[in-house]
Amino acid sequence: MRLSHNMNSLRLNLGYQKTLKDNVSAIGRISSGVKINSAKDNPNKIAQSESMRIQIRSLQSAQKNLQDGQSMLQTADGALQEANNVLARMKELAISAGDGSKTEADRSAIQAEMTTMKDTLNSLAKDTEFNGVKLIGDENVSSNEYPSYKDTVVGAMVGEKVRIPAYNISASFLHNDEGNALSDIDLTDPDKVDQAIGVIDASITSITSIRSKYGAISNRFESSAESLEQNTLIVEKADSSLRDTDIAVEMAEFARTQILTQTSIALIAQSNNFPQDALKVLERIR
């Protein structure tokens, strides 16, 4: 008589261990909702998924930049609108000072209000800021013909940025083509009224030009934000197809492995009874 291992039970046990492992994996994917929980689950797909997740976070960060940039431009535009109102009042005062019926006292009163308007314009330039950034009162600007620039990253790739010009709309920085500054306007002298009106008109043109530039950048920010939102949704969908669990497929896998596990247990128990049955046969022969 020769004794040997129960090879049938061993083979059944190997199959049982594999099926049990698959069953546990299916349960994990169903419970977590993610089919790639670690690099070993799918080395190729995990690299793609992580790359997409980094891209998603980068796009979301760029969207925040656009929102902040839009808010900064809106803040500046509100101040520039007020600057236009101030300049409109200054032109009214200049035209009023050109009235030949005005006395010196009248012109002095007009000049006093003009000085107040200049101070208001200077305050707008000095106090208008967004998170400490000044777009219309930049002290580094020596001339509005050569503004300084604030770079804003608006995408997830290298070089995707927008340059926002910064100006200084203080009265001393607004002037006409001859270099006569708004801060030097003197309405007490009737002979300088025409010059004052010309300087104010040039200042209005400068402020309007700045608002137009900011408006164009604001429109670009808005369109870029919409584009980034669409791109983010596309990448999120692609990442979801790689990483997220297909519940229907995993439930079918769970049911399959559950049946196989239970069947393996029953077969192993039956296979383990074979040696006992052989011994019983030998006992009868004796």
TrEMBL record:
What residues does the Flagellin C-terminal domain cover? 197-281
Keyword annotations of the record: Bacterial flagellum, Cell projection, Cilium, Flagellum, Secreted
Name a GO CC annotation attached to this entry. bacterial-type flagellum
Q: Which GO terms label this protein's molecular function in UniProt?
A: structural molecule activity
Q: Which residues cross the membrane?
A: none
Q: Show the Pfam families listed in the entry.
A: Flagellin_C (PF00700), Flagellin_N (PF00669)
InterPro entries reported in the protein's UniProt record = Flagellin, Flagellin_C, Flagellin_C_sub2, Flagellin_N
Q: Tell me where it resides.
A: Secreted; Bacterial flagellum
Show where the Flagellin N-terminal domain sits: 4-136
Quote the function comment for this protein.
Flagellin is the subunit protein which polymerizes to form the filaments of bacterial flagella.
List the PANTHER family hit by this protein, alphabetically.
FLAGELLIN
What is the similarity comment for this entry? Belongs to the bacterial flagellin family.
Name this polypeptide is given: Flagellin
- The gene it comes from is flaB3
